[in-house]
Amino acid sequence: MKFGRFELQGKTFFGLVEGEQVTELDGSPFDTCKATAKKHALSTLKVLLPFVPQTFYCAGLNYAAHVEWGNRRKGTNTKLPEKADIGYRANNALIATGEPIVIPADSPGPVQFEGELVAVIGKTARHLTEANALDCVLGYTLGNDVSERTWQKADRTMWRSKNCDSFKPLGPFVTTGLDPLKQTVSIDVNGVRVASYSTGKMLFTLQHFIARITRYSTLHPGDMIWLGTDEATEPDLKHGDTVEIICEPIGVLRNPVVRAKD
Amino acid sequence: MKFGRFELQGKTFFGLVEGEQVTELDGSPFDTCKATAKKHALSTLKVLLPFVPQTFYCAGLNYAAHVEWGNRRKGTNTKLPEKADIGYRANNALIATGEPIVIPADSPGPVQFEGELVAVIGKTARHLTEANALDCVLGYTLGNDVSERTWQKADRTMWRSKNCDSFKPLGPFVTTGLDPLKQTVSIDVNGVRVASYSTGKMLFTLQHFIARITRYSTLHPGDMIWLGTDEATEPDLKHGDTVEIICEPIGVLRNPVVRAKD
């Protein structure tokens, strides 16, 4: 099943996505819902954020080739993490597919994409094990962990490097029934394939993150866990670009890039 | 005006607090509301979290004496921050006054309180200046930034040291019309005064934080900014303790402490 959240003539609803057709749902996939008889062409709908989490978890460094690329590029010596210590991002930064990534006027740059698989929590969960961790997962979507590299290095926290308004594109849809370790995530900039990686290479699996998180924290329906990116995250993004995060069973998270004037 | 959120016989509502009496509000102070004729004795109501934010901002290090105490205690050399780089905490950790702070069974400790003044955002805000920053503030409440010091030092992020379930007591009420730089925040453990400080000593003012945040990020009604703690945060909390964060015009945020068995 693939679902999204849509707007049509001021009305907001969840809908089942089948090819280019959307069937309106009565209710929410995060609670209870059923299909209605109302069907729409996908092209006639505005695609909204599929949901907004209560807590927005983010794995950060979770692929070896991405860490090694960062070290080569910056002359740093960041070690691979030894434990699955999860981080957070901020809801103010979320935007839907189609909405612009806005580079602040005073950004020294570079600003870069990070295409990620995102696990969407469907059930309240505490004290899960790796064996039953996926029981709380409703499905998977895509995220772009847009990052301002000068601020990421210079600031005490990642508030501004990772969480400016519009720096967290999310969507377009949520797909159930996927194996989180057997997906291919690709990134296109202006229609050119610039990266493609297998989620099977993640350092700490989703199952491990969920078991570790729920030892201390309750996961709630609609929470999400961004699972990190692999490989290089170039070319740098600039005004006029379009960046796409692609995973075939989920769809294409497509956002234009603009630079703010002030 | 002082307001809170309450539960009575399964019904949830905002209410005006005047002494020991609560007047039910129709609507929300974060949108529009008006007083009803329904009045209750405060003692008959369950006090809930006053709100749950979309984005949970936290100043972290924002008082010199607290940083200096930490350096003396731990033999560290943490510098005072040079810029107001805001951080985040996680909503899963929020609890209301009266609810227990639960120390995880495997916490090496120590676990400590950090009593803080919290600014509550009432209006959507972007590109404010220090001069008009407080226009977006609805009022002030109290927070306890409970911290597990071993994990704070050992983990790559502060997920577990600061954001275990129950580690973020918030409340009890929100009071409007206060000067954020002229409050006294006191902390009692088991009825004994263990710390008391003036918010006038904060390194970066609330006005500065809001101006800096809103240069890059939109603040939304119900967001909040925790403003940091001053001085030492001892004695360590243990099973059976009661910790109180006190600011006279806001009230007392009182939480018992228990240690989980597994």
Q: Tell me, briefly, the overall form of chain A.
A: globular
Number of distinct helices of chain A: 4
CATH architecture descriptor name of the largest domain in chain A? Alpha-Beta Complex
Helix content of chain A: 10-25%
Order of helix and strand elements from N to C terminus of chain A:
EEEEEEHEEEEEEEHHEEEHEEE
CATH superfamily of the largest domain in chain A: Fumarylacetoacetase-like, C-terminal domain
Strand content of chain A: 35-45%
Number of domains of chain A: 2
Which structural category do the helix and sheet elements of chain A fall into? mainly beta
CATH class of the largest domain in chain A: Alpha Beta
C-alpha Rg of chain A, in Å?
18 Å
The description of the largest β-sheet of chain A is: 12 strands, mixed
What is the terminal separation of chain A in angstroms? 43 Å
Protein model, in words:
2 copies of one chain form a homodimer. Chain A has 262 residues and is mainly β. Chain A has 2 domains: 1-48, Roll (SH3 type barrels), CATH 2.30.30; 51-259, Fumarylacetoacetase-like, C-terminal domain (Fumarylacetoacetate hydrolase, domain 2), CATH 3.90.850. Chain A is 13% helix and 39% strand. Chain A has 4 helices and 19 strands. Chain A has helices at residues 64-74, 149-154, 159-163, 206-216, and strands at residues 2-8, 11-18, 21-27, 33-41, 46-48, 56-58, 87-88, 94-95, 101-103, 111-112, 115-121, 137-144, 147-148, 168-175, 184-189, 192-198, 224-226, 242-247, 251-259. In chain A, the strands form 3 sheets. In chain A, strands 1, 2, 3, 4, 5, 6, 7, 8, 11, 12, 14 and 17 form a 12-stranded mixed beta sheet that branches. In chain A, strands 9-19-18-15-16 form a 5-stranded mixed beta sheet, with no helix packed on it. A two-stranded antiparallel ribbon of chain A has the order 10-13. Chain A is globular and about 60 Å long. The N and C termini of chain A lie far apart (43 Å). Chain A binds chain B through residues 52, 54-55, 60, 81, 83, 85-93, 104, 126, 155-157, 159-160, 163-165, 213, 215-220, 223, and chain B through 52, 54-55, 60, 81, 83, 85-93, 104, 126, 155-157, 159-160, 163-165, 213, 215-220, 223.
